[in-house]
């Protein structure tokens, strides 16, 4: 069956027009997309919010720092008070008798020192409680040790025999020298008069 050429071209034109119409409908009215809304950030307002948060954090840190400082001060005060009370109780007999002893010595300057020495026994208890140990004994002759002794003359050499004038103290637990013993090549001059204060190193 022969086809009419005019009819053939008419069909082609009709098909092309249909394609153009469909293409125009599709691309001239695209499907609705999800509307994406992006909130505009005001830089001034954002900076204000950030600064406000930082200020709140700084203020909180300052309050915490103040609280810790006050707590530390309270603890330091409590430790100091406990130390003072404990020391006073150990020295109570010496402290309560000391004013009377001073008055008696003023009234009786010839009073032998040996009658007063027992009042200083509480000091030995305090040193023992603290763990402090005497370095040497008074008037003892010992080899000079620069780690333990403080010489009265710079030219004293290590190992040289010296006399202890004043004892030192060291912490037995920490093995720490608190105060070195004062030493000299010569013995101290001690008055021998019975009317003067006798020096008792025992």
Percent of residues in beta strands?
A: 5-15%
Provide the residue-averaged pLDDT.
Answer: 77
Q: Any idea what the radius of gyration is?
A: 50 Å
Low-confidence stretches: 194-202
Name the structural class. alpha+beta
Query: For this structure, what is the CATH class of the domain at 131-188?
Result: Mainly Beta
- The geometry reads as elongated
Helix content: 40-55%
Strand order in the sheet with the most strands: 2-4-7-3
Q: DSSP helix count?
A: 4
CATH architecture descriptor name of the domain at 131-188: Roll
Largest sheet: 4 strands, mixed
The CATH topology label of the domain at 131-188 is: Nucleotide Exchange Factor Grpe, Chain A, domain 2
Distance between the termini: 151 Å
The helix/strand series, from N terminus to C terminus, equals HHHHEEEEEEE
Q: Would you count the extended β strands for me?
A: 7
Transmembrane segments: 6-27
Keywords: Coiled coil, Membrane, Transmembrane, Transmembrane helix
Protein name: Molecular chaperone GrpE
Coiled coil: 51-82
Q: What would you note in describing this structure?
A:
By secondary structure, this protein is of the alpha+beta class. It has a domain at 131-188: Nucleotide Exchange Factor Grpe, Chain A, domain 2 (Roll), CATH 2.30.22. It contains four helices and seven strands. The chain has helices spanning 5-28, 43-90, 92-107, 121-130; strands spanning 132-135, 141-143, 149-151, 161-166, 168-171, 176-179, 181-184. A four-stranded mixed beta sheet has the order 2-4-7-3, with no helix packed on it. A three-stranded antiparallel beta sheet has the order 1-5-6. The longest helix is centred in the first third of the chain and has 48 residues, at 43-90. The chain is elongated, with a radius of gyration of 50 Å. The termini are far apart. The relative contact order is 0.07. The model is unreliable at 194-202 (pLDDT under 50).
């Amino acid at each position: 069956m022969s086809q009419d050429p005019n009819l053939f071209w008419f069909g082609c034109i009709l098909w092309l027009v249909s394609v153009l119409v469909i293409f125009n409908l599709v691309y001239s009215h695209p499907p609705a997309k999800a509307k994406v809304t992006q909130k505009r950030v005001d830089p001034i307002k954002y900076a204000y919010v950030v600064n406000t948060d930082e200020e709140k954090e700084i203020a909180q840190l300052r309050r915490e720092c103040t609280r810790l400082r006050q707590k530390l001060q309270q603890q330091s005060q409590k430790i100091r008070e406990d130390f003072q009370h404990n020391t006073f109780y150990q020295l109570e007999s010496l402290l309560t008798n000391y004013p009377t002893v001073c008055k008696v010595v003023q009234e009786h300057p010839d009073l032998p020192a040996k009658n007063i020495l027992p009042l200083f026994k509480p000091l030995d208890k305090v040193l023992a409680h603290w763990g402090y140990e005497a370095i040497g004994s008074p008037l003892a002759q010992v080899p000079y040790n620069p780690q333990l002794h403080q010489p009265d003359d710079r030219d004293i050499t290590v190992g040289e025999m010296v006399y202890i004038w004043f004892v030192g103290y060291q912490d037995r637990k920490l093995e720490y020298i608190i105060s070195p013993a004062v030493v000299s090549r010569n013995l101290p001059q001690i008055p021998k008069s019975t009317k003067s204060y006798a020096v008792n190193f025992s």
